[in-house]
Here is the input.
Amino acid sequence: MGSERTSTPSAARAGSVFLRHYDRLVRIAYLVGHSGRAPQARLVRAHRDVQRALPWRSERELTYPEMRRRVLRTATRRRPFQLPVLVTWAWHTTVSGSAAHRTVAGGLARLAPHARAAYLLVVVEGLTRADALLVMRDLGWPDADRAMVAAAELVARLRDERALTGGQQRALLAESPADPTVVRLRAPDPLGVRLLRAGRIALVAAALSLVVALVMVILAVSRAERDPAGARHAATTEAAVTRVPADAWTGTSELTLASWPSRGARSGDDALVQAASSAWQVGGAGDDGVAVTAEGGTAADPPVGSPTLLFAGPVDGTTLVVLADATRVATYAEREGGTRTLTVQPAPAQDEYATSALRIPAGPGKARYLLAPWATAPQARALTGADWHGLAVEDGLTEAVAVPEGERCWNGPLLRLRSTSAGQGQPYTLGDFGSAGLAHLMYVPPRAPGAVTQPNELDAAGGPAAWSRLGCALAGAPAGALGR
Here is the structure.
């Protein structure tokens, strides 16, 4: 589209653009669409709007901005009459969020649809205001300027009244509570279940299946009453785990933990990986032989969907298995003497910087880092140290790094990486705050009055020195709080 002045996206078949950007398009439709609907109807309507935007002709080529234009037109169209949303067998509801998520969602709900579109184009899609105005004018919206003013007022109000910067607002809208592709399945309305059963009475095969299912449930309940431990064990068997090929990350546009390859000398050990997955499936209510710990404000609940295997193998005398779902990282450990533990921590922020490395325990006073396949040239130092030193890497795992202990203030370690996929090949720095996820550290240099200065990567010109002055304030932060 001509309104995308900052770059010229290449055209591709409509189906390819639809598949590649479906999550982003559904999020736009969900947040821009009519906020007066019930959550169930709004969620399903967002998916339907994106599906309606897909051209009928499979051979047609278009760009992502053109597809986004079609979605915006569909999602903001006022319909005098709408058929009720079809109810599925399982109810799909969005994931609940924090007070900050509700604050941003509430602010968006009070805006008109075109103002919500302006907010999404600037804050979430990252367009400049001028480019966003061109997109809206190209759609034929006469109130584009008013919509942009209302969107800017919401950004400023959330910043001034709720201390949420534009970057934090964008991060909140990129997380699960604002993502309509991440849902929970809830029990349907009982009346709907009865009507569905009544309509299927005539089908003999379905009726027989229902009888068999009821018999199995009764037998399972009876067995659980006689042998609770055995029933608990049966619930944890054969928990599915996703293994990712080594080169899968080269074909994805979003570099996150889900695109990491499965590595480690025992990544093919089904029994070990299954033991780790089963321990996470039951969490704190599971096998008494596994000590489960949840850190960083997260919960030891079962993983959402099939967890991804990131690593399995020996590390400093301990056998480790590292699994991840969309929001958490679980580290399963088997130590000498039969001790087994499971530690569940928040996953790092879902971007190519923060997901470049994970912290792996390496014994008292030490840590190793499991690197993403796109992260290279690892170096480490203490926050107050003078020099960076290179780290050896084997199968994605760095050599052990000393973790400063016994100091009153936080002193690192810092991990510096390079990547052709992040930072345009320039080095960037991650901070180890004791959790599995590391935090991407940046700083804003001193600026002249009235000047706008973007955050910079840490460098010798003052970045580490600026963070070192915050070391004592960060010492009391909960593990994982800064990694998100």
Notes: The first strand starts at residue 12 and ends at 13. The chain has 15 helices and 20 strands. The radius of gyration is 25 Å. Residues 1-6, 187-194, 227-237 have pLDDT under 50 and may be disordered.
